[in-house]
TrEMBL record:
The entry's keywords: DNA-binding, Transcription, Transcription regulation
Domain HTH lacI-type: 2-56
Name recorded for this polypeptide: LacI family transcriptional regulator
Family matches, as PANTHER family: HTH-TYPE TRANSCRIPTIONAL REGULATOR GALS (PTHR30146:SF109), LACI-RELATED TRANSCRIPTIONAL REPRESSOR (PTHR30146)
UniProt keyword annotation of Transcription present: yes
This protein's record includes keyword Transferase: no
GO MF annotations, alphabetized: DNA-binding transcription factor activity; transcription cis-regulatory region binding
A Pfam family the protein falls into: LacI
Species this chain originates from: Actinoplanes cyaneus
Superkingdom to which the source organism belongs: Bacteria
Segments passing through the bilayer: none
Length: 332
């Protein structure tokens, strides 16, 4: 196995210089740095990550706190999966690793903080279930560089990334009103999570401006079965709504199934609009009209924000709110 001493011997430099090339390259001349890297590549030498961590005090690892709640299948949600792929790709392009953090099982507010300290991660990306878990909030209080997704997060070195959820709700309402609907209902996300509240407020604002009231607003949990159950509830009302805005695409797919079972034609009998633009939205008949989020943009922005914090932890970062857009398909 190649060693650092072999690289030094072949390069004609000291072991300390080779170490600096891999740990603090900015203090080594470009000519020497390139020579050492070429020799290392030629003999297949790779620096020991543990040793590099001790030398630089940095692990080059970003922790992922994905607190989806054990009662819900958060890992399989396609929206979150797309964000995770973009996040990992952007970090990997800059030599950073993404580590899923398993919380300490002991009670108290420090279970995530202990995981951060145990693995010596440089910063944390948080995908929270909206519960405002004190153990998650403790990360911010401890000064750990944190970027939260769809969760307003404040602290000494924290920011958050989200979509224009209120604007997306307004787009959905405007579209349905322009289609001539007046009995309009919604299936909300789990309240009081930040995205669910924002989408509902934006949606209701436009209805109110048009002199309309909600024709029902059962809550779902972002997943298919909750949308199916909520839609059955809405279709049992008299008069039933002629249009339904589901605040998440998986719930909208459940709503489509409920409408089909009730013998209703979409959109002739009831129009359905979703939110997210997951892959299946374009595949299921009749094609789901939906408010699209920039999933790749969210993941990439999270990576860029955490990297910026690791470079300069003293400059606060403003939250990033990405625009949404309406994708019109056959369901409305």
């Amino acid at each position: 196995m190649s060693s650092i001493r072999e690289v030094a011997r072949r390069s004609g430099v000291s072991v300390a210089t080779v170490s600096r090339v891999f740990n603090t390259p900015e203090v080594v001349s470009q000519q020497t740095r390139q020579l050492v890297l070429d020799v290392a590549a030629e003999i297949g030498y790779l620096p020991n990550e543990s040793a590099r961590t001790l030398a630089t005090k940095k692990s080059n690892m970003v922790g992922l706190v994905w607190d989806t709640d054990h009662r819900r299948p958060g890992w399989r949600h396609p929206f979150l999966q797309d964000i995770l792929v973009a996040l990992k790709s952007a970090l990997s392009a800059h030599g950073l690793h993404l580590l899923m953090l398993a919380p300490d099982q002991s009670p108290g507010q420090s279970r995530f903080l202990r995981a951060v300290q145990r693995h010596n991660v440089d910063g944390v990306v948080i995908i929270d279930n909206g519960s405002r878990d004190p153990a998650v909030l403790a990360l911010a209080d401890a000064g750990v560089p944190c970027v939260a997704l769809d969760l307003r997060f404040t602290g000494p070195a924290c920011t958050y990334i989200t979509s224009d959820n209120a604007g997306g709700g307004r787009l959905a309402a405007q579209h349905l009103i322009e289609r001539g609907h007046r009995r309009i209902a919604t299936i909300t996300g789990p309240l009081p999570t930040y995205p669910a509240v924002e989408r509902l407020e934006g949606f209701c604002q436009v209805l109110s401006e048009a002199g309309l009231e909600l024709a029902g607003s059962p809550a779902g949990d972002w997943y298919l079965e909750s949308g199916y159950t909520a839609m059955k509830e809405l279709l049992s009302t008299d008069p039933r709504p002629t249009a339904v805005f589901a605040a998440g695409d998986e719930m909208a797919v459940g709503a489509l199934r409920a409408a089909d079972e009730a013998g209703l034609r979409v959109p002739a009998d009831v129009a359905i609009v979703g939110f997210d633009d997951i892959e299946v939205a374009a595949l299921i008949p009749p094609g789901l009209t939906t408010v699209a989020q920039d999933k790749t943009g969210i993941g990439t922005a999270a990576a860029e924000s955490i990297m910026s914090m690791l470079t300069d932890a003293t400059t606060p970062l403003a939250p990033i709110i990405l625009p949404t857009s309406l994708i019109i398909r056959g369901s409305s």
